[in-house]
Amino acid sequence: MSIDEPEDDSPETQRARLILSLRSQGVSEPLVLNALEQTPRDLFTPKLFQERAWEDSALPIACGQTISQPFIVGLMTQALTIEPRARVLEIGTGSGYQTAVLSRLARLVYTIERYRTLMGEAEARFKQLQLGNIITRFGDGGEGWPEQAPFDRILVTAAAPAEPKTLLSQLKPSGILVAPVGRGPIQTLKRYLGDGKGGFREEVLCDVRFVPLLDGVAREL
Ligand code: SAH
Fold first, then answer.
1. Taking all residues of the chain, what is their mean pLDDT, rounded to a whole number?
2. Which listed CATH number (3.40.50.150, 3.50.50.60, 3.40.30.10, 3.30.450.40) goes with 11-208?
3. Which residue from 179, 166, 183 is spatially nearest to 206, judged by alpha carbons?
4. Looking at the chain, which runs of residues are DSSP E strands?
5. Is 32 in the pocket of ligand 1 (CB under 6 A)?
6. Is the pLDDT of residue 112 over 80?
7. Which ligand 1 atom is the nearest neighbour of the CA of 68?
8. Ligand 1: which residue has its CA nearest to atom 16?
C-alpha cells in the first residue's frame, strides 16, 4: 500500500495486517501471536484514538500514561517464555492491554497500578472480556507483591531507573524478569534469567521508550 492511500479498511483487516507486521518484525511464537490476535486493542484505546487502535504505535491514555506499542508488547511477552502453569506479576497495568495478552498465556496474572482511575478502567475491561485469571492491586509496583511471591515471571511495563532488585528478589530461582531499565527518554529492555542458584544472567534485548516507574501511589486520580 502506498503511504498516501487512505486507510479505510475494516477493523478485522487492520488487525490481520498488524499481526502480519508483528510476525515480520520477529514476534514469531504462535501462542504469542494468537494471544495478540485475541485481544481487542480498540477496547483498551481511548475514544479519541479509536481509528488508530490497530496501528503499531504507542498511544496516550488517561493520567498522562500510554498504551504500549503492539510490537513491544509482543516482544516482551515472547521474551518471557510463559508456560501455561505460570504465575506472572506485571507492574504498570495502564490500559490493561498487556495484562490481557498475558492472561491468555499464563495461569494467573497479578497486576499492579499506581493510578486508581487506570486500575478501575482496566478492571472493567477484564470483566467485559471475561478474563477471570487476573488479580489486580492499586499500589506501588516497585515493592512487588510479597504476599504472592515468588513468581515464575515478572514483567515491568514502566522504566526502572536501575536494576529492579526488589522485584528480582520476588522471582523463582529459575524465573525470568523483563524490564525497561534506564533514567533517560530511551531505555534498554533487559531480560534477567534466574540461574537456579539465586543469581541472574542479564541480557540486553533492544532500546525502548517507556514512561518512568515512579515511587509510591499517585495522589491524583
Ligand atoms: N502495559 C500498559 C503500559 C502502561 S504505561 C499498557 O499496555 O497499557 C506504564 C504504567 O505504569 C502507567 O500506567 C503508570 O501509571 C504505571 N506505573 C508507573 N510506576 C508505577 C509503580 N511504581 N507502580 C505501579 N504502576 C506504575
1. 96
2. 3.40.50.150
3. 179
4. 59-60, 66-67, 87-91, 108-113, 134-138, 151-156, 171-181, 187-194, 200-208
5. no
6. yes
7. 7
8. 92
Integer Cα distance of 186 and 75 in angstroms? 17
- Asked whether 158 and 210 are in contact (CB, 8 A), the reply is yes
Domain ranges (residues) in the chain: 11-208
pLDDT at res. 9: 85
Which atom from ligand 1 is nearest to the alpha carbon of 213? 19
| SS3 call for 32 | helix
Say yes or no: CB of residue 141 within 6 Å of ligand 1: yes
Say yes or no: CB of residue 157 within 6 Å of ligand 1.
yes
> What is the structure's pLDDT at 211?
96
Q: Which of 67, 71, 91, 103 to mutate to test the pocket of ligand 1 (most atoms within 8 A of CB)?
A: 91
Q: What is the mean pLDDT of residues 37-51?
A: 97
Nearest CA to 168 out of 200, 136, 139 is that of 200
**What pTM, to 2 d.p., does this model score?**
0.96
Residue 122: CB within 6 Å of ligand 1?
Answer: no
Question: Quick one: pLDDT at residue 6?
Answer: 54
Alpha-helical runs (H) found in the chain: 11-24, 30-37, 41-44, 70-80, 97-103, 116-128, 165-168
Residue 8 has pLDDT above 70, yes or no: no
The catalytically annotated residue of 24, 68, 95, 169 is 68
